[in-house]
Design goal:
Helix content of chain A: 25-40%
Strand order of the largest sheet of chain A: 7-8-9-10-19-16-15-12
Oligomer: homodimer
Largest sheet of chain A: 8 strands, antiparallel
Largest interface: A-B, 50 and 51 residues
Chain lengths: 744, 744
């Protein structure tokens, strides 16, 4: 026993001689720190960011060090304290380097020693909820967060510490920590998942600081052996690992990122993973420049920053595709460092500076310094978000997200159409769903996730059961539901095999932007093609959305198409019966969470709904069959803990239907002021919408406005841009090339 | 026939000789205009306001003049056009005077002539909804609005017009218009009501311009004879006229205003009436300075401006006491002129300038000029809203509104306790109800009115039937309901006889502000006293609200006390059953509009509810009996047109109860960020609340916080500030003078 201890000590001694590299070398470098010190007091935004962090850390280090025995879920005391500790440690380390004041290094050392005393005594975290429980936190993911931040702190104070202290820390804390996250938690570490990215980076970062090749290799390439059962699953029901799946940081760059930089889980998790992805890249750039990590996969890391910035509304908030908590935005700390790194290690794109300026802080490293200097020197240009297609899948061939933006005066209308693959365990069953915005206002909303992240009262801040039973279900989204069953029967494996197919996209005419996509796998023997157009024509005050959903099936079905309008109803064109007592709309697949507030029949060729939200008016006009059922429903049934928002929806239900086409427009018009109490343009401008043509090749739509002016739109069902098309409709002859034509 | 015409012409000629007064003399004066012209270009805020209005009018006068045949309800085309016309006419008249450019006078003349051509042909407005239909608009009220504005335009261009033009306008338009509003519409004109104020001022103003003593007298003193039936009512069910009621402008100043300047209908209508009240006062000051109108009733007009400014939240939005549309604020045009007039004709109070500066515009008259000059000269001081008591009733002896404000850091907590009289036809049946704010966030809300003012789709912009069936009912408010019946049985006459009695109020200790009031008429043989305290003690992050509602009755009843919390539930301390299908809570008195979402039993001495709203946490803790029923309900049942907001409430129901005391605290704590996803202080600090004493003279409350620190509050039931009080509770002896004591 004693012999083993001495032997390990000797090995550690040898290891520490091998670590002949200089420190810091991870995020900060010796040379970089020199440069930062020279610029202090000369770069306002850097100085302000430094002052903020100094004030925060100075206040913190006056308090007693608290390293509590882990106990609580997210939101609880021990969770929040350990989280605070790692954030402060990283900052204190940076302050030590930049300000060269020993008190920060002493603080880091003392906290680390406190952790080193406790860590060897820790069992697995007592909370049993996670598929991969941590030690400091209820899940390994948060332990990995801790190590990603703390490895930076360790790097910063490395030279300040005595060898003995370093040896102690590595032996009692960092190596067991890295081992626990990797070889002892393969189901967490050896996956393609944002969790694993954190794990890989945590282990890789501490490996770089310790110059430990094993952990560096684990971080980059995963574990060779993991013993993960082929059907193992995480808490969200996601499969842990596909057979033959590569793992590690590089595999997590290869696989979930498309060549356009879209991350298949969606922007909310892309944002979350951005920090480890980018910070490890920075560390690899500094320690292993020969890897040229920023060129990896044609520069996918930098592309992913642009993808993320484009996946935001006018307030910088991410579109809540798949599991996404609304309100998360590019003001998050992850995006501050991502934007700084993309500027510094990319092409010093001045448009990134305008985002950094809005963020109003920079990271305290050389990337942040460069950004702050460029802002000081007024180099920034506007970051203009344009209409965009972001492919999904590692090869860019597994669907896509289409974003159409159309600006008029101060109103920017944005369509987000989701034609992606499943999106791993955070995916929703909502093929070809969409949301529609005016600036940051949701006109037709995507629900997002059912979770209150880090609010302990709500299931410890974790996912709520309604996330699975409602938020992920198809009926929770603005897309087609057949026979009240979710896409792919709500089955994760089936859903993960398929993706919607982009037929064509054309943004060349800013007043007529079109995306057409097709889904043939969501329901058996059924295909539906959705063509969405954002149209800016003189008949309308603002750009409007035209949605054409063409459904073909070999049998009769019931179809539901929900419109999650956001706001309060002003008027409907159709009559309905309001329920005296309200019942859930169904018993499963999300329907059990919708109250049926009212039901009517269309009884006309068109129905119209006008509602008000945030001082604007909106109207939905839809083509209907006279016997279409119109259901006014509201989220919130079977929600005993009040976990869901009580938001409304209108559902057009078609029963016993073979083939059908859902056609609708969504307009934003006018405004209301509560101060002047004047209502401007409170009515839809649409008199009628008609389907004037529909065969195997073409669809034709006619929109007639209130002044009887008509707009005719024709488009192909297939991508056929070369041929000259010709159609005669109602004696008018239309000839065009390209996929679509508009006449008004 | 011809003789009569010639005779009338001669009479008009004579009349026009009598009008030897100079013009303008109403709002602008010849001398005042000179002064304004001299200052042009030297007073930034005045110049900016002038430029805005010039731009607006210049754009408008390029368009064709549109004076349509009246047809539509509010929000409809003809309504909005006539409204736009009067606003533009007033502004064009002012521009003519200030800029001395004829094009404005020509525009005013041409529009007025167009009205003069149409007016004699007009029948009563075709929309039949009003108790007092207008000609240009669906109700006389809007016609009166028109004349209040247009009489100013006429005054401004009076000297520009030829005598023939003036004679024509007066004969065909103004005199018939004034006659229609007065002698032909006595049910509108001869009341104590904001409607009549507009009517009185319209007729009085045009009387002043025309120097027509009859109409001036009608305006000031009402009609001598009106033939109004003693039981005549308006659309809101309000009695038109009490027997012997004085009428006219002066009576409308005497009666609904309290000596403190509180207007009995509530701030929303006070704001609406403010414009005619103040503008006519300005006109009377200019034309009849001997009246000393601003000194009338001890300067009630100026006091009313201060009362209104104090009846706002931190965003300047009026508290929605009685019928009030939320969002209306001191940024409205009525308050711009009111604040300017109060500054100019009052004591040049520099704190008014800070409001004017926020309004960022001034009226284009000498009051506005003075305000803008003072702002230019940096004379403004902050307008500090303090805790306040505003008496109600013409003599100040018919109840009151109590406002308690308690500020900590950037959070200002505001209690608005309504212990008023009925408030005429716009009153709600909510004796001793309250709302509670943090800045502009409603923690516990007052519903306000059920109406979408000027939104045509919603009942022509008029009151919705749910205003009567829900918004006015007691159960829609945070106050006591006995046996599911509204106060006074919801009977207007009965309610109008009574008011709540203020027992005492004490704001002397900013950390312990208290109001106590009593209601003995709302329910037969039942009295309830409500004592509300805003408490700032070290146990709590923020000031908290303590509410003690002490009920005594001679028989057993069911009691309901609703808490209209605003936001989403995070947790409850009590168990409840959620309904699988939801039913209305009752069948009448507003209960038919509440869905019963869940029901539980308190089963404990305290219940607690924590919810989140606008990134803050709030907790309600209430003392309960174990068999108290807790109902979680939501507004929206029996609401077939979706007229109501779907807001939640918690109701504590006590059945078969003789006497009881409802005791609760409301805390705001912590915060949540959607960007950092960190939840701070998400839990209530309260462990327990107890009633430790309650006899005929005293009530004692003990609040124990989570760290087991206790706060004991004792207060008297009667106003007894002189005697030395002594109580022994649980062996502790408390001695004090004054109505209350706090020990912690």
């Amino acid at each position: 026993m004693r012999f083993i201890k001495i032997y390990s000590f000797l090995l550690l001694l040898i290891a520490s001689f091998i670590q002949a590299q200089e420190h810091p070398n991870l995020i900060l470098t010796k040379k970089g720190v020199q440069e930062i010190r020279q610029q202090l007091g000369k770069v306002p935004l850097f100085d302000a960011s430094l002052a903020d962090i100094k004030a925060e850390v100075d206040a913190e280090i006056l308090k007693p060090i608290i390293v509590p025995i882990p106990k609580d879920m997210a939101g609880g005391f021990t969770h929040e304290q350990h989280k605070k500790n790692y954030l402060i440690l990283q900052k204190a380390g940076v302050l030590y380097q930049i300000l060269n004041e020993e008190k920060y290094a002493i603080y880091v050392r003392d906290v680390l020693l406190a952790y080193a005393r406790m860590y060897p005594t820790l069992p697995i975290h007592p909370q049993e909820r996670s598929y991969s429980r941590g030690k400091l936190f209820w899940q390994c993911l948060n332990d990995a967060n801790w190590l990603v931040y703390v490895s930076q702190a360790y790097d910063c104070v490395y030279d300040f510490l005595s060898k003995k202290e370093r040896n102690l820390l590595e032996k009692e804390l960092f190596k067991p920590f890295a081992k626990f996250l990797s070889v002892e938690s393969p189901q967490f570490f050896n996956r393609i998942h944002n969790h694993s990215t954190w794990g890989n980076v945590a282990v890789g970062m501490i490996g770089l600081v310790m110059n430990d090749k094993t952990y560096i290799d684990y971080g980059l390439n995963g574990l060779k052996e993991d013993g993960i059962a082929p059907d193992a699953r995480d808490n969200d029901g996601g499969l842990i690992k596909k057979p033959g799946q590569k793992t590690g940081y590089l595999a997590n760059l290869d696989d979930p990122f498309s060549p356009d930089g879209y991350y298949t889980e969606g922007p909310y998790y892309q944002r979350y993973a951005m920090y480890p992805f980018m910070i490890f890249a920075e560390a690899l750039h500094n320690t292993k420049p020969e890897m040229k990590i920023f060129d990896y996969k044609n520069g996918v890391l930098l592309k992913s920053v642009y993808a993320l910035l484009n996946l935001t509304n006018s307030e910088g908030e991410f579109f809540p595709l798949n599991d996404g908590q609304k309100g998360m935005s590019y003001y998050s700390r992850e995006l501050v460092s991502a934007v700084n790194i993309a500027y510094y290690f990319g092409n010093q794109d001045p448009s990134l500076l305008s985002i950094a300026k809005k963020q109003d802080r920079v990271s305290l490293d050389n990337a942040g310094l460069q950004v702050a200097m460029a802002i000081r020197d007024a180099k920034e240009k506007p970051f203009v978000k344009k209409s965009l297609l972001l492919t999904d899948g590692s090869d860019g061939k597994q669907g896509s997200v289409g974003i159409i933006r159309s600006k008029k005066d101060n109103n920017e209308f944005t369509l987000v159409m989701k034609n992606t693959s499943q999106g791993l365990s955070h995916g929703h069953y909502d093929k070809m769903s969409y949301s529609f915005y005016n600036n940051a206002n949701e006109i037709l909303q995507d629900y997002g996730l059912a979770r209150f992240v880090n609010i302990e009262q709500k299931n410890g801040g974790g996912y709520l059961k309604e996330n699975k039973t409602f938020a992920k279900q198809t009926i929770a989204h603005n897309t087609l539901v057949q026979d009240e069953v979710s896409h792919f029967g709500g089955d994760f494996e089936t859903g993960s095999k398929y993706f919607s197919e982009l037929i064509y996209v054309d943004y060349s005419n800013p007043d007529f932007q079109i995306i057409s996509a097709k889904e043939v796998n969501a329901y058996p023997n059924t295909e539906f093609q959705r063509t969405m157009i954002v149209l800016n024509v003189p008949s309308f005050e603002n750009p409007i959305l035209l949605d054409v959903l063409d459904v073909k099936s070999n049998a009769k079905h019931q179809y539901d198409l929900p419109y999650y309008y956001n706001g309060q109803i002003l008027s409907t064109s159709f009559k309905y019966d309001s329920a005296r007592s309200v019942e859930p709309l169904g018993t499963k697949n999300g329907y059990q969470h919708l109250w049926r507030e009212a039901t009517g029949l269309a009884k006309a060729d068109n129905i119209q709904l006008t509602w008000m939200h945030n001082n604007q008016f909106h109207s939905l006009t839809a083509v209907t069959s006279t016997d279409d059922e119109i259901i006014l429903a509201r989220i919130g049934a079977n929600d005993p803990e009040f976990n869901l928002r009580k938001d409304p929806t209108l559902i057009i239900r078609k029963k016993d239907t073979h083939n059908t086409t859902y056609i609708s427009t969504t307009e934003t018009h006018g405004s209301y002021s509560y101060v002047t109490e004047s209502a401007k343009n409170a009515y839809s401008s649409i008199k009628k919408i008609e389907e004037i043509y529909n065969d195997t090749t073409y669809i034709g739509i006619k929109i007639t406005d209130k002044s009887d002016k008509s707009t005719v739109l024709l488009f192909t069902k297939n991508n056929d841009t070369t041929k000259e098309h010709q159609l005669t409709i109602d004696k008018a002859v239309y000839k065009w090339t390209g996929n679509s034509i508009i006449k008004y």
